[in-house]
Amino acid sequence: MVLTENKREMICENLSRSETGELCFAGRPLTPLAEKYGTPCYFYDEQRIRERCRTYLSAVRAAFGERGRVLYASKAASFKRLYEIMREEGMGTDVVSCGEIYTAKRAGFPLEKAYFHSNNKTDADIEYAMENGVGYFVVDNVEELYAIDRLARERKIVQRVLLRLTPGIDPHTYAAVATGKVDSKFGSAIETGQAEDITKIALSLENIQLRGFHCHVGSQVFDSDVYIRASQVMLDFVAHISKTCGYLAEELDIGGGYGVRYTADQPEIDIAANIAQVGEFMHSHAKKLGITLPEIAFEPGRSIVADAGLTVYTVGTVKNIPGYKRYVSVDGGMTDNPRYALYGSPYTIVPVAGEVPDGSPLCTVAGRCCESGDLLQENVPLPESMGRGDLLACLTTGAYHYSMASNYNRVPRLPVVMLDGERDYLAVRRETPEDVAGLDV
Ligand code: LLP
After folding, report:
1. pLDDT tens figures, 8-18
2. Which mutation among 70, 116, 219 tests ligand 1's pocket best, with the greatest number of atoms within 8 A of CB?
3. How far apart are CA 356 and CA 9, in angstroms?
4. Does domain 117-300 have CATH number 3.40.640.10?
5. What is the value of pTM for the model shown?
6. Where are the domains of the chain?
7. CATH architecture entry for 15-45+307-436
8. Number of other residues whose CB lies within 10 A of the CB of residue 36
9. Is the separation of the CB atoms in 24 and 1 below 8 Å?
């Protein structure tokens, strides 16, 4: 294998082209894999996932000592094999639904290391999480806090909780994923005094053990300063509560959000260096405030799995509308990747067989659903010769693809195939039409 220099497509180290020009992922040529598993198909590079976990764990431990935690935000991609990998790597996890809790449990993930999020946990959710011994609840609001206290009392347990606060910080990302601003459906705002109110209530409830605070400013964040500013606001709040309530938080969870590269013009974040910087700031700010630094947790999702995944499609129709556009339709689309339709998210889409010659036409890569908005990307240079049966790879699809997939048009969902050195194996099998219709009574 030789790694050719092609800046547009080689956006992660696990991509290369063979001597014949074929696209390889995790060191494996993709054509035989597509033949073996069929298309469309998600492929994951297991070693890349493990490497990312280790990068986070070692950075967090270097910055905050053995008590620093890394929780994989499993909304980014949730299936049994991933929780097994997280368990093996010593990660914690963030879960947001009974479905994620159940999947983690089936993987033998130690649920005492799970943090239960969501801005609207029903009583049934809370009971399910308690029944399964989920270690921490990240409480969004006062009603939920009272419900957790009531249900904990019924079970005669004391539930450990963190309170989700909004630090009032704009992470400069797309609106759908900016969550740390005061005007947010998530958390209690520090600025409005609601954060202090909920803290006082939490401290007064008998079946609640307040462990500390949580914030998550947003997702796909490139500005590392955002985490410093969030840390500052959160530590100031910890110090304020210590003074006014005599309560010193034991834990501070700073959320997830580090951005990843979908295209060559996006920067690559040095996670270790960033966390070191945040750590340095936190230690010195805590010292300045005269408080002991709480245990610190990070909650990355996208940056653990995004570039460990890609999707392979087969081209069907190529439709040239002279003077307008050239549509290249593939056998997947918004059902396996809704992110372009939802957020206009950029992607790198390349032919599997070989590099794109200079001067190739710009194409609109379209999905197979009955909806004009079902596009994967526009202005993608693809070879003039591209046609029925050719393979295309959409890069960086490991996060928020499988987990956001749908059955729109009753399209069966894709399988997930793991690549690990010479080994390849199914982590999730392909859905069948019978699976899709299987719940109909
Ligand atoms: N912690 C909390 C409380 C979160 O809400 C999230 C993401 C994370 C951690 C992980 O953030 P990450 O490291 O993955 O950026 N569907 C959108 C992303 C939604 C993110 C939701 N929360 C997308 O496809 O871009």
Report:
1. 889 999 999 99
2. 219
3. 10
4. no
5. 0.96
6. 15-45+307-436, 117-300
7. Beta Barrel (2.40)
8. 10
9. yes
